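User: Here's a protein and a ligand (pyridoxal-5'-phosphate). What would the complex look like?
Assistant: Let me lay out the input and then the predicted complex.
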Amino acid sequence: MNGPELAGQARATVQIDVAALSHNLSVVRELAPKAAVMAVIKANAYGHGMELVAGALSSVDEFAVSSFTDVARLRAMGVSHKITTLSAQFDQPEVNQLDAQTVLSVFDASQVSALKSSSLNRPLDVWLKVDTGMGRLGFLPNDVESVLGVLRQQKSVRKVGVMTHLANADRPDAPQNLKQIEALELLVANLDFDMVSVLNSAGICSFADAAYDVVRPGLMLYGISPVVGTTANALKLKPVMTLTARLLSVRDLPAGSQIGYGGLVTLERASRIAIVACGYGDGYPRHAVSGTPVVINGEMCSLIGRVSMDMIAVDLGDTKAEVGDAAVLWGRGNPIEEVAAKADTIAYELTCGVTARVQRETING
Ligand SMILES: *Cc1c(COP(=O)(O)O)cnc(C)c1O
């Protein structure tokens, strides 16, 4: 068949609920009432659409992204907020072109050199990133005083903040959390910074005493629980992304039938099996196991057999369903955290992985 598909017959669709974004922001503000909110919208706002999310969250204080390309995209749509680049390397010509509301993360000696040799006449704010135990980006605590001293002498540098990132905040009981927070506290007590930032979403939920000046929520803004073993619902978060797809086929299959590639599953009894128009080609995780929840007509059903590129099979059990009904793969009514766990991954990877062919819709509540 040629020609455009009718909208109602799109294979898979993601809905982005902009009202849920605002609601989740209010949860962040309740937990960290004194801190400025730097909304993290890197990776196309975790797959939700960077421009859409930036527009819906214009009441935040600042944004964070990973690249100067993202900064340019946001400026092009008129975003005038401060925007921090969390993980961008830069050289001296690049620095000279940045606008004064762009805030750099300085995590490597090469960046200090670039700032030193910069001929910038409008100085920039920077975050001095400290590795207190994440083992990713940043200077070790012992080196911070000397780096700070150098940054303070540069005409290209205006304010200097200190930022660190917790490696285990999703597990609040992990002793590393307090070790990292204490290491940062020690620096803040002894050195003079213009601003301090420690917490991502999981940190905001469990260590709000360390909110300091700026908090950096990503995941929780998208309505996903950042804390292992705690549901989004318990944290009063509302899912922003819902992935749905239509039923292509509903069949009764006899006991003994094998389902999908590799015949991983053999039906023990006669079963009603739906084929849903969503697969790993849409970003549904191929490693999701049989039993992964799929919600159809408000009822919990389960994935059965291997995920294909364009399709999955679902055991309908006693659920009544017809060709053309919608299945909720994750989102409203089907928590993404559970789907991610069944696929041995994290919700971040699922939302980031929705592919270009999936139709997108914006809804408001
Ligand atoms: C991605 C990121 C965040 C946001 O993390 P969430 O877990 O999504 O809240 C905060 N800080 C840094 C440095 C990051 O890289």
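Summary: Residues 40, 42, 86, 165, 200-202, 216-219, 226 surround pyridoxal-5'-phosphate (CB under 6 Å).
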